[in-house]
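Support request from a user on the community tier.

User writes: "When I paste my C-alpha cells into the form, the page sometimes reloads and wipes my input. The last time it worked, I copied everything first. Here is what I submitted, just in case something in the input itself triggers the reload:"
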C-alpha cells in the first residue's frame, strides 16, 4: 500500500456536478474512489453522466486513488461519453485517480500539482496457492493499467514499467514530457480592475521595506556582498 494513500484514505470524498448548461458541465472528484473507500464509484459517476447533455465536461480531480476497477470503469465511462472531456488535476491524481485522468481529451495541471502512477496492490491472506494466484491476478491487472497509460505515454512499455515499479510522482512538466498531461496552467490571475484596487497602504509598506534594505545594502562593501552570495550558492552546488 502506498504511504500517501494510507495517510489520506480518510479524506472526505466528494462528488459534485456543477454549472451544468447546454455547453459545459463540471464534475469534481475529490477524495478516495470506489470500493469500501467512498461513494464516489463507477455507478454514481454513470448516473451523473447520464444526466449530462453538455458538449463539454470539465473533470476536476484531487484524489489519492482507490479501487482499480471502479477507476478503470470511470475512465471508460468518460471516454465513451459524447462530450469533450477536459481533465484538470487540482492537487493530486494518484493511483486510480490517475487512470481516470487519462480519459481526458485534454489534461491540465497547475505547476504545483502531482500525478502518481504505480502497480496494483491489494490486501490478501491464505495459503501458498492462494497467494500465488493473487500475485498472478495483480500481474494481469497491471497489464490493464499499463495499457491505459500507454495510450498517452511517450515511450516504450519497458520504460513505463520502470516508472510503475518505482511508484512515481510526476510534477506538471514531467507529466507533459511523458505525454501524461498536455498543459501547465498557472493560478488564475485577477482581472486588471481588481488589481487596481490593491490597498495603497500595502504598496507603501512594500516600498518602505525595499528602501530599508536598499539603505542597508549601501553600507555593505559590494565585494564583501558578492563573496557572501557566492558562498551561499556554493552550498546548493555542493
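"...and here is what came back when it finally went through:"
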Amino acid at each position: 500500500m502506498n504511504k500517501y494513500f494510507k495517510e489520506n484514505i480518510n479524506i472526505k470524498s466528494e462528488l459534485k456536478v456543477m454549472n451544468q448548461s447546454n455547453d459545459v458541465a463540471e464534475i469534481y472528484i475529490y477524495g478516495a474512489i470506489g470500493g469500501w473507500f467512498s461513494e464516489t464509484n463507477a455507478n454514481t459517476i454513470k448516473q451523473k453522466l447520464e444526466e449530462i447533455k453538455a458538449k463539454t465536461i470539465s473533470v476536476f480531480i484531487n484524489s489519492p486513488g482507490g479501487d482499480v476497477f471502479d477507476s478503470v470503469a470511470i475512465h471508460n465511462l468518460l471516454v465513451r461519453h459524447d462530450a469533450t472531456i477536459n481533465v484538470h488535476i487540482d492537487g493530486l491524481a494518484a493511483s486510480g485517480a490517475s487512470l481516470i485522468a487519462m480519459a481526458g481529451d485534454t489534461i491540465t495541471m497547475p505547476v504545483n500539482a502531482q500525478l502518481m502512477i504505480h502497480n496494483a496492490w491489494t490486501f490478501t491472506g491464505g495459503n501458498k496457492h492462494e497467494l500465488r494466484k493473487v500475485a498472478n491476478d495483480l500481474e494481469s491487472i497491471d497489464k490493464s493499467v499499463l495499457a491505459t497509460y500507454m495510450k498517452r505515454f511517450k515511450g516504450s512499455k519497458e520504460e513505463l514499467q520502470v516508472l510503475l515499479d518505482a511508484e512515481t510522482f510526476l510534477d506538471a512538466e514531467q507529466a507533459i514530457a511523458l505525454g501524461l498531461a498536455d498543459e501547465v496552467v498557472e493560478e488564475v490571475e485577477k482581472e486588471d480592475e481588481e488589481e487596481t484596487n490593491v490597498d495603497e497602504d500595502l504598496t507603501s509598506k512594500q516600498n518602505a521595506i525595499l528602501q530599508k534594505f536598499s539603505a542597508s545594502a549601501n553600507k555593505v562593501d559590494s565585494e564583501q556582498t558578492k563573496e557572501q552570495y557566492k558562498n551561499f550558492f556554493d552550498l546548493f552546488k555542493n
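Agent notes: The reload is a front-end session timeout and is unrelated to the input. The first strand starts at residue 14 and ends at 18. The beta strands are 14-18, 24-30, 56-63, 84-94, 106-110, 114-117, 168-170, 183-185. Escalated to web team.
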